[in-house]
Predict the 3D structure of the following.
Amino acid sequence: MARPLAPGPPSVQVFETPEGVRRWSRAVRRQGRRLAFVPTMGCLHRGHVSLLRAAADVGAVAASVFVNPAQFGPGPDWKKYPRRLTTDIETCAALGVEAVYAPRENVVYAANHSTWVVEDDLARPLEGACRPGHFRGVLTVVLKLLHLFEPDVVFFGQKDAQQALLIRRMIRDLDLPVKLRILPTVREPDGLALSSRNTSLDPGQRRRATALWKALAACQSLLAAGEKEASRVRQSGLEILQAAKGVQLDYLEVVHLETLERVERVDGPVLVAGAIRIGSTRLIDNVVYPSGALVNPESKAKPS
Ligand code: AMP
């Protein structure tokens, strides 16, 4: 799946502790090179690869592979999350990624860790309402990683649009000296958004999982046709999800792209975000209207 980004023999340094990462990233800077960073939870797929490839345009590329326990709720979800570190390192090496940080949990979180990054606005709806504490865990680990790598540019996917918007808010609110790039969602030919969690679906569940994309695509078509009533847009997606067998709906919402508040009328950019459960696997996806409104926001002078 990996074509080298740069000529030369692939080699990647793998770090398990912050000290090694800091030494490496400072050495990159001393060489006068720019650094791009791609945080992941591993089990890398073509979505991650698109971020790693884009990152290569910046300069040296680093990635992290860490299944962050702080962003999972209680229950088996964290343990169950797929892990394939050896393959991930091979993928990174083949892509020309120069450093991978793959720490153990106790390296990232001391036993009495008690300092958290809490965002109080965008973190409330959608995923925040379904997964209490999720974004506190995400922002905390991302801030720790940004302090460690001190990258020039950090890359996130539109697939997790609310997460990307929260990172954008954190960067602005905490004056972090890093640029954010958000890249489009990479999909399977039938529309299913690539996700490490897809590996947990059995063949029947995998077929049913396309319902989420079909619902979002229906919403997108109505929006493109000029529908301004958010309830009609939402209803078109809900009908598809409610008709799908073995699919439990967590939410499907039409929200303002900047504030994530529900809208009644579509008179500016909106995010249509959905989450479903199929068996014990939870899937999220979204579309943005107009479709390019979230990607590459680094070109905007003042992010909200
Ligand atoms: P994860 O490993 O799921 O935490 O994802 C790491 C990064 O990859 C996040 O910024 C995600 O938004 C992004 N990502 C995950 N899936 C996709 C996808 N299908 N297309 C593009 N980016 C993705």
Observations:
- The first strand starts at residue 13 and ends at 15.
